[in-house]
Amino acid sequence: MPESSRLMTFRGRALLGCLSVPLICVALDQLRLTGQEPKKPPEEKHEQQTAKGSDEALRRHLLAMQKTDRTIRDRIMVLSPEKQASMAPALKSIDEKLTAELKEIVAQKGWPTITLVGRDASEAASSILLHSRDRDFQKALLPQLEKLVAEDQIAGSNVALLVDTILRSEGKPQRFGTQFKIRGDKAVIDPVEDPARLDERRANYQLSSMAEYKYVISQLYRVKVE
Fold first, then answer.
1. How much is the pLDDT for 184?
2. Is the pLDDT of residue 6 over 50?
3. What's the number of domains the chain is made of?
C-alpha cells in the first residue's frame, strides 16, 4: 500500500478509536461528498455561494474561529494514538472557547446565514457547532437550523452530521447515515431510520447518495463497508 494510503488509513482508524466525539466528527466531515445543491436559478445560486454577506466583520470573525478549530484538529490527526490522547485537554479548551464565542454571536445576531456572512462563514459556524461539547446548546439550535436548511438559508451537510451525532448519542437510529464504526477490516454503518428514504433525505441536505458515501469510506479506510 502506498505511504499516503497507509497514513490515511492510520489516521482514520486512530480518530475513531481515540479522543472525543468532536474530533471524530472531523473525520466524518471530511468524508462528506457534495450532493445536490438547493434548486435555484444558476445566477442566483452563483451569487449566493460567492457573496460575502452583509456583515463582513462577523464573516471574518467566523472564518478566524474556523481556522483555530481546524489548526488543532489538523495537528492531532497526524499524531499517534498516544500523542492524540495527550492533546485532549488542549482540544477541549479550544472547543469550549469557540462554543462560548458562537453562543455570543447567536445571542447578538442570530444564526449566521449565508445572506448574513456568506456560505463559507455560515458553514464555519455550523462546523464549530458540530464540534461543540455542549449538547444542550446543539439540541436547542436544531429546530431553527433544520428550518433554515429547508429555506435554503444555510447549507445542510453539517446539520445532517449534527442530527446523526445527537441521535446516536441518545441510542436512536440516525437519520442521514453519516455515522459508522470500524470493526476489524469492515466499516459498519450505524442503524438508520426509514432506510427506504435515506437517499432522499441526504439529497435534501446536500449530501451525496449513500452508495457514493460508502465508496469514499471504503477508499479512505481501506475497508469493506456494510
1. 87
2. no
3. 1
